[in-house]
Amino acid sequence: MIELGWPAKPLWPNFRSRSHWPKTQALKVARAEAYYATKAARLGLIAGDGIIPVQATFNPPDRRTRDYDNCSSTLKPFFDGIADALGVNDSSFRPQPIIVGDVVKGGRLTVTIGEVA
After folding, report:
1. Which is nearest to 85 in space by CA: 25, 41, 55, 24?
2. Is 9 helix (H, G, I), strand (E, B) or coil?
3. What gap in Å lies between CA 30 and CA 51, rounded to an integer?
4. What domains, with CATH codes, occur in the chain?
5. What single-letter DSSP state applies at residue 3?
6. Which of its termini does the chain have fewer beta carbons within 10 Å around, N or C?
7. pLDDT at residue 12 tops 80
8. With contact defined as beta carbons under 8 Å apart, do 113 and 46 qualify?
């Protein structure tokens, strides 16, 4: 299990800016955060038949409702960083349905790799 921070505002599809730089920077930071969190979790290579189930759990920072397709679109840079750390191609990830959990101060994204409930 990998615990990450709440996705930055520029990663959400409804974010608008006059410049592409906020999103570019947020993508870079999210990928690096996922990479280092995966390395710190010391997950071994999850091999098998090449299919890796991945479960994402969003714990929002407030009680506003979250749109599931918007949540799923924020996952790409995190999955890229996790794949880099594991040394696999992220095309082998099979995302399971997203879970939106309880409110947590500051928000949190938890990614479970391999055995998914």
Report:
1. 41
2. helix
3. 23
4. 2-113 (3.30.1330.70)
5. E
6. C
7. yes
8. yes
Angle at 64 between CA 112 and CA 19, to 5 degrees: 80
- Surface-to-core class of residue 104, CB atoms within 10 Å of its CB (0-12 exposed, 13-18 middle, 19+ buried): middle
> Rounded distance, CA 102 to CA 84, Å?
29
* C-alpha–C-alpha distance, residues 116 and 55, integer Å: 6
Please classify residue 73 by burial: count the beta carbons closer than 10 Å to its beta carbon, then call 0-12 exposed, 13-18 middle and 19+ buried: middle
pLDDT, tens digit, for every residue of 51-103? Answer: 889 999 999 999 998 888 889 999 999 999 999 998 888 888 999 999 999 99
> Alpha helix (H) ranges present in 2-107?
21-41, 68-73, 76-86
